[in-house]
């Protein structure tokens, strides 16, 4: 995964789908953490970022040393290295905004509304941003697939019952979607230019952890009590699977798959979350869940085929 320049598009799509699948398990892990401890969402997000740094650092350190020797041989910093640092800073801040804004939106307006606004507006913002910044186009088939995916997401998330919409929650959801769009567009640009996806992920997690530390400390950095012994295990899982592995795969896939397409493929996340909620948390599988999941998966499949044909 250290180099994605020769990655086939089909494998990039699989990487993105695998990343979204891993992200879909994060909500259940967080819900179990909330049940078993008094950790808050910002603290959970902080430990997720910090754990990602600790897990990725041994994998990225050799390339960092090589980069240091390269700068020494050339008499100082190169423009690319300065660009990498700027990208890492902006991506890390945007990732912290994305995750924290989403958690805050859930608290303000509920899980259903926050999810449908954040994940529903994300592909639209990314498609517009990709068209403006790098001239990417989805085409008519891609547009139909995007609309179908958004319709399936709406049925999946909102089909289970009534939901209240509050302006503060809507604003926070849009802020979260904006952070997600920035992460995707910047990472797509850097990955296409040959940047190491693991280095991108490591730097973003490091900056995000620094940004979240004061907020997490104010909320409560470590739980005062544990009702089960699974809290450390869940924190390690969050850091390892949906964070270090998930974002490593995501940034690698972004190097070869267009940003707007990637944003729709990663809507696999709420499908996974729905399945995990039924299997792990004991939630009921409703007809809306089945219908929304079916429409969403068909739309993602159509878009993946269109993307592979476009890039071939």
Automatic annotation (TrEMBL):
Membrane topology: Multi-pass membrane protein
Family matches, as InterPro entries: AA-Vitamin_Transporters (IPR050638), EamA_dom (IPR000620), EmrE-like (IPR037185)
Alphabetized SUPFAM superfamilies for the sequence: Multidrug resistance efflux transporter EmrE
Ranges that cross the membrane: 12-34, 46-65, 86-105, 111-130, 142-162, 168-186, 198-222, 234-257, 264-282, 288-306
One GO term describing the cellular component: membrane
Keyword Transmembrane belongs to the record: yes
Record keywords: Membrane, Transmembrane, Transmembrane helix
Domain annotation EamA: ranges: 11-157, 169-303
Compartment list: Membrane
Record-stated family: Belongs to the EamA transporter family.
Name of the protein in its database record: EamA domain-containing protein
Organism encoding this protein: Wenjunlia vitaminophila (Streptomyces vitaminophilus)
């Amino acid at each position: 995964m250290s180099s994605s320049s020769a990655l086939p598009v089909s494998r990039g799509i699989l990487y993105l789908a695998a990343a979204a699948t891993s992200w879909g398990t994060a909500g259940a892990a967080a819900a179990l953490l909330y049940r078993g401890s008094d950790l808050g969402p910002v603290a959970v997000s902080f430990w997720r970022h910090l754990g990602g740094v600790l897990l990725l650092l041994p994998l990225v350190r050799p390339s960092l040393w090589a980069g240091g020797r390269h700068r020494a041989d050339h008499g100082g910093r190169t423009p690319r290295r300065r660009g990498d640092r700027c990208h890492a800073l902006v991506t890390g801040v945007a990732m912290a905004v994305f995750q924290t804004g989403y958690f805050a939106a859930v608290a303000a307006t509920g899980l259903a509304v926050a999810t449908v606004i954040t994940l529903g507006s994300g592909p639209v913002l990314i498609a517009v941003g990709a068209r403006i910044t790098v001239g990417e186009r989805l085409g008519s088939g891609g547009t139909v697939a995007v609309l179908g995916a958004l319709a399936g997401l709406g049925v999946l998330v909102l089909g289970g019952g009534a939901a209240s919409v509050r302006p503060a929650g809507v604003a926070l959801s849009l802020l979260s979607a904006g952070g997600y769009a920035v992460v995707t567009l910047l990472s797509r640009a850097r990955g296409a230019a040959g940047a190491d996806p693991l280095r991108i992920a490591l730097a973003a997690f490091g900056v995000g952890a620094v940004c979240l530390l004061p907020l997490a400390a104010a909320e409560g950095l470590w739980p005062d009590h544990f009702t089960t012994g699974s809290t450390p295990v869940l924190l390690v899982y969050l850091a390892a699977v949906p964070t270090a592995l998930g974002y490593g795969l995501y940034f690698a896939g972004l190097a070869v798959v267009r940003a707007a397409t990637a944003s729709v493929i990663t809507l696999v996340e709420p499908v996974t979350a729905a399945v995990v909620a039924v299997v792990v948390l004991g939630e009921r599988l409703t007809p809306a869940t089945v219908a929304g999941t079916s429409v969403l998966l068909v739309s993602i499949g159509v878009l993946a085929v269109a993307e592979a044909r476009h890039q071939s």
